[in-house]
Amino acid sequence: MKIPNGHEIIQLFEQFAPKSLAMEGDKIGLQIGRLNKKIERVMVALDVLENVIDEAIKKDVQLIIAHHPPIFRPLKNIVTDTTQGRMIEKLLKHDIAVYAAHTNLDVAKGGVNDWLAKALGIEDSEVLVPTIDTKLTKLVVFVPASHAEQIRHVLGEAGAGFIGRYSHCSFSTDGTGRFMPEEGTNPYIGQSGALEAVDEVRIETIVPEPLLKKTLSLMIKAHPYEEVAYDVYPLENKGEVLGLGRIGKVSEMTLAEFAEKVKTNLEVERVRVVGDLTSKVKKVAVLGGDGNKYFSHAKFKGADVYVTGDIYYHTAHDAMMQGLNIIDPGHNVEKVMKKGLTVTLQNMCKEAGFEVEIFPSEENTNPFQFI
Ligand SMILES: [Zn+2]
Predict the structure, then answer these.
(1) Could you give the CA distance from residue 244 to residue 238 in angstroms, rounded to a whole number?
(2) Which of 263, 298, 344, 367 is the most exposed place for a label (fewest CB within 10 A)?
(3) Is the overall model pTM greater than 0.85, yes or no?
């Protein structure tokens, strides 16, 4: 076990929620402070408000990973007797870095929207609003026959060779590899200056582009040769669709019953509901955050009810007229993010052998109260 630095933690995080998944114009990534330092404690927060910063100081945290970027519009100045200036000053003084993971964490497979779908017991969920078609590549590598099995295993474990619900897919052909080690080489087989012919296997598999870098580095590490011969081809095949929101099924109940379920499972006191409380719901769409823009996706895909935050009066009218029920738990809909990300990061760090404490912020940042 080793104490990681900030870059190492963020590298792990970005394998899970790469920046490339974010919506255009979103402000994500490192916003305040630095990553080139040892990190012993990470706090996961929904928002970075002053009470959250005070909590981070008290708990001696070196890095906050927040869902909502604390700096969204460009700053004109940093004046330390304004609230925002004072917050930045506090963070810098205590050497606390803030990293924002917003729509990339919403879109990520196993991210906010999947945590939300899971919390509401939605099964067989698919993406509600597609935003990204993952590009696929074909990876071909030439391996001495003795190591073919091992390389196929490494490729499969890296996530290459996924076709539908089949993992570890590959195709192998036997052949002869020829090479002449030049002077100054240290060949695994053969000698400098002599033409060598070796029984090799050509292994080919399919790799989604986001996994390519990691797959290549693991493959090269496991390969016995000094110079690994491999090719990467772009493919026209359609890859996995990623995006915002999820839609799937729950066991049939009334809208009123489902609204109660949302309250209990998302731990919110009150929800706003649009629609006939006695109508039946079975197909449920969810979208973390503000889902006003996407209600027609929910209608189009046949949802009986749409669970999202911050619904406007006029969106509610439009939905009502189209016969789409809505449950709005406010921005609380994203509460699941703190626990979800904490557990995900803890598991990743444990697997990487990092000794670091990761915990959710306990401060409440919801500005609304119900009286
Ligand atoms: Zn949000």
Answers:
(1) 18
(2) 367
(3) no
